[in-house]
Design goal:
Helix content is 59%, strand content 10%. A two-stranded parallel ribbon has the order 1-2. It is elongated, with a radius of gyration of 14 Å. It has four helices and two strands.
Amino acid sequence: RYGITRGAPRVMRLLEKHGIRATFTACALALERAPALAREIVRQGHEVTSHGWRWAHQFNMNEEQEREYIRKAVESLER
């Protein structure tokens, strides 16, 4: 929890202080579990690039499973 409660807020403050816009590579589930961080990323005008819905190896998935995995990530990030 250190990264979410201490590390991420420090990084967010530094980015805002220096007027830097960043791209966050994140699993959608991680942002679901850290809604305050997700809101702050959006508030500061950063972007999120999807690292999938959760921590999983997509190379083990068949096409149908991978499409479902991507769909879940997109829906989660849009929320």
